[in-house]
Amino acid sequence: MSQTATVAAAPGAGAGPISTEHFDVLIVGAGISGIGGAYHLSTQCPDKTFVVLEGLESFGGTWLMHKYPGIRSDSDLYTFGYRFKPWTGAPIATADEIRKYMGEVIEDNDLDRHIRYGHRITNATWSSAINTWTIDAIRTDTNEHVRFTTNFLWMCQGYYRHSQGYTPDWPGLDRYQGRIVHPQTWPDDLDLAGKQVIVIGSGATAATLVPAIAGDCAHVTVLQRSPTYFWTGRNANELADTLRELDINEEWIHEIVRRKVLHDQQVITQLSFDEPELVKHELIEGVRSFLGPDYDVEKHFTPQYRPWRQRLAFVPDGDLFQGIKSGKASMVTDEIESFTEHGILLKSGEELSADVIITATGFNLSVLGDIEFTIDDKPLVFNDTITYRGMMFTGVPNMAWVFGYFRASWTLRADLIGDFVCRLLSHMAELGASRVTPTLRASDAQLPVLAWMDPENFNPGYLMRGMHLLPQRLDAPEWQHSQDYWVEKDSLPAADLDDGCLTYE
Ligand SMILES: Cc1cc2nc3c(=O)[nH]c(=O)nc-3n(C[C@H](O)[C@H](O)[C@H](O)COP(=O)(O)OP(=O)(O)OC[C@H]3O[C@@H](n4cnc5c(N)ncnc54)[C@H](O)[C@@H]3O)c2cc1C
User: Fold this and answer.
1) What angle (nearest 5°) sits at the alpha carbon of residue 219, between those of residues 213 and 223?
2) Cβ 167 vs Cβ 185: under 8 Å
3) Cα separation of 230 and 356, whole Å?
4) If you measure from the C-alpha of residue 62 to the centroid of ligand 1, how many angstroms do you get, rounded to a whole number?
5) What strand order describes the sheet that includes 343-346?
6) 32 ligand 1 Cβ < 6 A
7) 125 and 112 in contact (C-beta within 8 Å)?
8) Where does the pLDDT of residue 3 fall: very low under 50, low under 70, confident under 90, or very high at 90 and above?
């Protein structure tokens, strides 16, 4: 049970006392990471009280908010699903299927009683005098200001701003007479039947959206500045199907298929570094096999970058390419000169006209859920910190952050961090410590400070645009997010909690 107290109003909070509840741990967000965190806490630290605060009206995060046609995962659910809950459907899943799976985790583990929906957190304030975080939130139903205190803050708020996607400020945007829509804020009343549509962008979102709308629209033009890598295959897992035929139980199937998927991904990732031209050739030939020898695959589907420098978009059953082959969709590789009254003028001089323009141009990075952080009366400048293993930060006590993988499924890391946080909390209890703060050792302080991510390694637009908001790293395993599941699956569980990187008080 939480403890409840009534305290004086916070500065700027309006008149009247605010009721404050205290929990040992407070999780921000009820997406796949936050629900995973709640599961790990309830199973590995059953004596800890905890609450999950979620700004939206329900669980799911990404899979609740995104409502564009065709929304689905681009990772297989054997690895995007949790380690502890077998996935029994097709590998690529719709948002509804992912939410159903998460709903079962909540129900099976009685997590609902720990979650408060409609609580948008605005401020997080750390006090070293009492080793406590004070969390201020607004209830979205009543606009009421509510306050919580907690010993440990577990940030599972995702990495992008949910309220608004990223749309570049193209010249002439305001001249365009048609409708502009961002997939992240898909309107309920959008009817695309018989419409000429342009989709700007060719990442995973466009690859999902285009086949889903192409049948309805008069025509869809995908306008990309530069090509993206795609890989295709059936939305089925042969090994899982065979094991099911043999009547193997689902727990085993989940574990065996996860291992196989991860093994194959490791081979491909390594090959992308060792033999990028070979991987590039294979990926491009995969696209050509759908579009035929006469299609200009060089122009529209041959990226300049090495495979895996940006996330590979999976196209189940080649549905995007089938749309192109049938003539319902087409690709244009060019740059935008300006928007016009009826569409888009390209740098080549060609003009595209459209009734609706969909800007599948990505996210705005939001590193801390747009929460204002203060540490002992000083605003936290996240970029001034150095990350401890991509999940804690120098000078930021009692806080962990879930930032998953890009090349492998996000949830693999959410599970690893879940184990780590529970181990850390137990270790603190053993030590009788109330505070843990990542702190550079004398030897670490000699190392050069680097940006969060090496752009040579991985460089999607939202990370490049937001690098100045992210913490920094050192060139040492303890002080970076390696983005390498195959290393971290062993190194995180084995990380020595007493190697001097974490200071306990
Ligand atoms: C369309 C799309 C498809 C994707 N597909 C894949 C995929 O196939 N595989 C993969 O690995 N990754 C994928 N990703 C990345 C994906 O975002 C993550 O994998 C994963 O869903 C993130 O889960 P999360 O719980 O960490 O964050 P989110 O899903 O973003 O959830 C965070 C939650 O925190 C809440 N929150 C944030 N700030 C506050 C606040 N201040 N107060 C209260 N609540 C707050 C939000 O409302 C939200 O519910 C995809 C992303 C998108 C957008």
Assistant:
1) 85
2) no
3) 25
4) 4
5) 336-339, 343-346, 351-353
6) yes
7) no
8) low
**For 492, phi and psi rounded to 5 degrees?**
-70, -45
Phi and psi at 313, nearest 5°, equal -90, 130
List, in order, residues 6 or more apart from 78 with CB less than 8 Å away.
87, 91, 237, 240, 254, 257, 258, 261
**Which residue's C-alpha comes closest to atom 4 of ligand 1?**
73
61 lines ligand 1 (CB under 6 A): yes
What average pLDDT does this structure show over 329-341?
Answer: 97
- Given the structure tokens 């599972």, which residue do they identify? 156
What domains can be seen in the chain, in order of their start residue?
A: 3-162+365-504 (3.50.50.60), 167-361 (3.50.50.60)
Distance 108 CA to ligand 1 centre (A): 22
- Report the predicted TM-score, pTM, of the whole model to 2 decimal places: 0.94
The number of residues in the chain equals 505
Task: Give mean pLDDT, residues 35-46.
Answer: 98
- The helix (run of H) or strand (run of E) holding residue 399 is strand 399-401
What residue's CA is closest to ligand 1, atom 16?
62
Give tens-digit pLDDT for 414-468. Answer: 999 999 999 999 999 999 999 999 999 999 999 999 999 887 777 777 788 888 8
Cβ 457 vs Cβ 310: under 8 Å: no
Element containing residue 393 per DSSP (H, E): strand 392-393
In the DSSP assignment, the letter for residue 359 is E
* Ligand 1 neighbour 359 (Cβ under 6 A): no
Distance, CA of 85 to CA of 78 (rounded, Å): 9
Q: Are strands 351-353 and 343-346 parallel, antiparallel or unpaired?
A: antiparallel
For ligand 1, say whether the CB of 471 is within 6 Å of any of its atoms: no
Tokens describing residue 187: 């309107």
Q: Whose CA is nearest to atom 37 of ligand 1?
A: 157
User: Six-digit token pair at 437?
Assistant: 């703060």
H or E element that contains 265:
helix 250-274
Asked if 138 and 120 count as a contact pair (C-beta separation under 8 A), the reply is: yes
CA separation for the pair 354, 499 (Å, rounded): 60
- Span from the CA of 37 to the centroid of ligand 1 (angstroms): 14
